[in-house]
Fold this sequence. Notes:
The complex is a heterodimer.
Chain A: H1 3-11, E1 22-25, H2 28-33, H3 35-48, E2 53-55, H4 64-68, H5 74-91, E3 95-98, H6 101-116, H7 118-132, E4 141-144, H8 145-151, H9 153-158, E5 174-178, H10 181-184, H11 200-207, E6 211-212, H12 226-230, H13 235-249, E7 256-259, H14 262-279, E8 292-294, H15 295-302, H16 307-310, H17 320-326
Parallel strand pairs in A: 1-2, 1-3, 3-4, 5-6, 5-7, 7-8
Chain B: E1 4-8, H1 12-23, E2 27-31, E3 46-47, E4 52-53, H2 54-64, E5 70-73, E6 78-84, E7 87-92, E8 97-100, E9 102-105, E10 109-111, E11 128-130, H3 131-140, E12 153-160, H4 176-190, E13 195-200, H5 210-219, E14 224-227, E15 230-235, E16 241-247, E17 252-258, E18 260-265, E19 267-269, H6 271-280, E20 307-309, H7 319-338
Parallel strand pairs in B: 1-2, 1-9, 2-5, 9-20, 11-18, 12-13, 12-18, 13-14
Antiparallel strand pairs in B: 3-4, 6-7, 7-8, 10-19, 15-16, 16-17
Amino acid sequence: MKAEGKKRVWADYQKDIADDHFFYVRSCIRQTFFPGSEQFFLHLMRKVLGKDVLENPSHTSCTGIGYHSDIVPLRTIMAVVARHFALMKESGYKNIAISCVTSFGIYTEILETWKHFPRELEQTREDLFKATGREFDIPENVAHTSDIIFKFRDEIAQKAKYRLVNRDTGKPLRGVEHIGCHYAKMFPKHGVGGAEFPRVLSGMIESWGGEIVDYPERRHCCGFGFRQYLVQANRGYSLSNTAKKFESMKPFRPDFVLTNCPGCNMFMDKWQYTIKEMDGTVYGEKGESIPILTYEELAGLVMGYNPWDLGLQLHMVQSEPLFRKMGIEFNPDDKYKTKDGRQMPVPQNLINS
Amino acid sequence: MEDRVLVVGGGAAGMEVAGRLARSGYKVTLTEKESLTGGHIRNWFHLFPDRRDSLEVLSYLENQVDHGNITLLTSTDVEGIETRHGSFLARTADDREIEADAVVLATGFDLFRSERKEEYGYGIYDNVISSADLEIMFRKGEIRRHDGEIPQKIGFVHCVGSRDEKVGNVYCSKLCCVAAVKQAMEVREYLKDAKVFCFYMDIRMGGALYEELYRESQEKYGVNYIRGKVSEIAENINGRLIVKVEDTLAGRPLKMELDMLVLMAGMEMSEGGRKIAEYAGLKTGENRFFAPADHHFGSNRGNLRGVFYAGTCTAPMNITESISHARAAAADVIEYLSNGRR
């Protein structure tokens, strides 16, 4: 495999990512299932990198899941997105930072729709004004939060306490990078590195000392797919897609999987548990499963933050095997304690624990 | 007769038209941006449909331009053409000027850059090669994988950069199908035990003896044709290529492991031709090749009187067609100059 070839592809997909002053919009799934990621993003941006990031409490769901399930019509979701842009305008911000890949896909799809069908933009302006009295501007810069971490990956590397290197062997850890389909497959030009050989996550892994696993089903869906899991009868299909990916990556012995999509992270994490429960199959080494991390969690780990403050214990597949390989110091007794030291209930049947 | 003709491009069409005009008594300046004439033929081994060695054709063309009336300027890149007092002035990249009474553009084609079809991984996966790369292997007499092993399962992907809206080329390059058939047969001759698969959308055998060649490839050489477009290519842990394709005749998706994959790169308007078109205000078609004044009666003329076209700068053509088109261009030039430039 020729690294130069990939670099040539990446050169065609350079993305302009704002440097500062972000209007931050959260993800429904991320703030529910692994809230530490969004919390750490805000901490990193504000306290470590000294950036201005605003959250507006009036921000709502983008209703993307409803849109993809044919519950929310296009005209409605355009008005919802327009309202978010109105909140941004009212707050004096022009750069939007989107935490969720589904939302990122929604925003980019709607912006492209307005670009090609100006009548839809005018209709949305009218709808929003009639419903709320608000007006909005098109953002000057639209970035997914993984784009932003990618932009600052070298600054993070300079502040790293640990590297993505196996402490015992000295060799780089092997990372599978998996971008969400709605990050770049709809509009490759909006993704760092495009859709076929995306750079957004692989760039972080390489900057932080690891190496990339390029396996045959790298481009395949994680198994999330709205219609696959929303319809209960289709969930076997969702599961089989996840199994297909893991079977394909298994021979490459990855140490971790890095995702930028809430759904991908959730399904690659939880379906590993399900598959193990169903027939005992695991995809990692030594009978373990493969930890699935968000880019904020991985950034926090290399920077030496306490894994439990990052919320890594909220995954189904626990990340202790990765901590040990990286040489991360952690206290297992603190894993399920509140910040003021009270013991919380300990979940049963976690894997890798 | 003192009329001077500038022929831009020293491939098959340019060499043929230069030779014809020189023998008719015109002073011809033939420019070629590379250091050698011959164009793409120089990179090809055997030609379809009769498997003639390309060197024979090259030798014929070199004889055409071996004439006292021809001034050959190699390593000369003509960037633009201007009209001046009823004549033409060509400017080269190194600031030279060439005067002429008529100009023939034979700027040819560029092979589609296969890396633009990112999903095929050309330039990334070691054993994804282009049809031009395979010709080099044929010339060397050795077909090997990147790791030195002899491939046993080889695939050919038709229509790479042709009939593909995604890359902006909706036209058919016409020759890739028959080139794939020829190359598949040659692979089977070199590697007796190899299995060869061609992945195609339609097999377009529009030239003399093409259909016969296609039939022969199946009956005598056992080449397998699978109707379906390859969707993506990846590498497994053993460095083998995993090819995903839909077999549209069987109505099912296929996943195959191959040792080598050959991309049949299509033809595009050359960069040199594009620059001249922009500089001189020459019209191009939707396919970005030079637009002929009339598809039936004026395929050698464009929108600028005194500028003529020869060969693949107007559309994909095989060598036979390029040479015929060049001869027609020569006839048009002679008529133009002998009729007082009308």
